Amino acid sequence: MNVIAMRKILKAGAIVFGLSSLFLVILPGVFLNLLQLDDSSALRWSMRMIGITVFALAGNLWNHAGQAEERRVGNVAKIMCLSAAALGVLTLLIPAQLSWFTFLYSAIGFGFSTAYLVAIFTK
Q1: For a 10 Å CB count at each end of the chain, is N or C smaller?
Q2: Which parts of the chain span the membrane according to its record (predicted)?
Q3: Residues with Cβ < 8 Å from 82, sequence gap 6 or more?
Q4: What is the pLDDT of residues 12-38, one digit of tens each?
C-alpha cells in the first residue's frame, strides 16, 4: 500500500467534498438543475441535509489522512474506494436525463475510486 499517496488522495477528497457540501448547502437549486432533477422545496431541503453530511465526511477524510497508524489510513482508503465507485454508479443511474454535469460528477467519483485503487495496490 502506498500510504503517502492515500493521505494525499484523502486530503484531495476532503477538499472536493468540502466544496461540494458548500455548494449543496448554499445553492441546492442550482445543483438540482445541473442534475436535471425537479427543483422543489423538499428536494432543496434534502440537498442541504446531504450537504451537512458531506461536510462531516470531508472533515473525517482530512482527519484520517493525518492518522499515525498506516493500517487505519489503508482501511479508510478501502472504504472510500468502494464509496467513490458507488457514487459514480449511482450518479449514472439518476432518474433524470443525463447531462454534462451528471457525467462530470460521475467521473469525479470514478476518478477518486481509481486513485484509491492504485494507491492500495502499489508501494
Answers
A1: C
A2: 12-33, 45-63, 75-94, 100-121
A3: 113
A4: 999 999 999 999 999 999 999 999 999
Distance CA 49, CA 19 (A): 15
Q: Which distant-in-sequence residues (6+ apart) come within 8 Å of 8 by Cβ?
A: 65
3-state SS class at 80: helix
For residue 78, the model assigns a pLDDT of 96
Residue pair 67/10 in contact (Cβ under 8 Å)? The answer is no
Q: Do 12 and 80 form a contact (C-beta atoms < 8 A)?
A: no
Residue (of 94, 89, 123, 95) closest to 109 by Cα position: 89
Model-level pTM?
0.91
Amino acid at 1: M
